[in-house]
């Protein structure tokens, strides 16, 4: 029993401290591979020692100190062959810092999300190094074989080393552009988890929690960036509806039909407060606006009581900041409620989103509401054929059946 | 410092008229001057048309000589610069200017191995 508890603690410390420890070691060694190896060795030592000796008072500091010693040993061994003596000496002399600066982790997050790396590699590195997930966990979450993921990560690390992607927080003038890439990675991780239905490996659903954790890290490390806050707010507000979102058998329950008593009031309160906080700064961004839209939904006692005109106005702003057919489609959904399905259908028909299941589902709904049942049934059938998640397919198939009366 | 190869890819075929190319070449000359002033310039040049290339392939004891560039394609490397930069981000700042001036895809790729000593370019 006691041993199990200790093992659980090592795992918990791993999740919390891995990214922190790697970022400190990267700063002192300048070598991501070496830093990761040293931190992993330190955790292996912890797994052996802590069950017998007890957990140290500052487990994170213990890990960093142990990892630093391993790195020094490694440098000394290599110094025999190369010129790493100076690096070993510098590392050995450095004062242990038990409260590493947040900037270390932030710099590492920017390395993981560097635009010179392919998106799948960015996601894998962010989850592995900042999120502290094992390679096996990341592979399970993205439904790729573990060797594929391991290779993806090692290639990315080789590129970081060979192309010399620098370990630093981007300068103020490049920060907005680079931050957008980091936020996109976190958003993508969340969406991967969110679109996963019931019956999928638990690792996939766990991606939502990991994305929220990463968004919290970003807000903590960049308190002055309203878009980081906006993203966290958006994720929290989406999380608040997760339970209400799937019915028996994992069938999707759309927003209008959700049992609002199942929505998580604490997450809504936190998300809404964040929305107000960031909007007050007057530096609008797409995540803040998306979060604001979710906050309007969250504030309504029912779908009918929703302030749809306000949502349309927010989509107008969003369409200016981040124009695109998907935003236009979502805006049309709000227009349908504010002005009627006919107006919305005209907007939707002007969009070129054939093949995107949500487009077909929205069009189907609008056709049904304007009395064109047969066309609506065909659109629902098309939407369900294209939908990636099983729960969504079941929902859309159900709608198609009801309309065609079979 | 690390040396990076900055390659410019251009479509094969008709070369744009001089009135189109002249301002681009002038801006590239400015960029080269800036690279030299920053001590980042190593070497750079434009290549003759890809159709002027010749490929050699060793086949057993013999070396076969064939016409044309190594890879079939609609675009080929049209020129390159070798620069020195402390890291990829710094190299990308230069690469971005090449892309903006030429409107062509630009590949930025580090040289392998130990960073070369500065040539003082």
TrEMBL record, chain A:
Molecular function as annotated in GO: DNA-binding transcription factor activity
Domain of life: Bacteria
Occurrences of domain RNA polymerase sigma-70 region (ranges): 14-79
Domain DUF6596 positions: 178-277
Single GO biological process annotation from the record: DNA-templated transcription initiation
InterPro entries xrefs: DUF6596, RNA_pol_sigma70_r2, RNA_pol_sigma_r2, RNA_pol_sigma_r3/r4-like, WH-like_DNA-bd_sf
Name assigned to this protein: RNA polymerase subunit sigma-24
Organism: Sinomonas atrocyanea
TrEMBL record, chain B:
Family per record: Belongs to the YciI family.
Protein name: YCII-related domain-containing protein
Domain YCII-related residue range list: 3-97
Taxonomic lineage: Bacteria, Bacillati, Actinomycetota, Actinomycetes, Micrococcales
InterPro entries hit by this protein: Dimeric_a/b-barrel, YCII
Pfam family of the protein (one): YCII
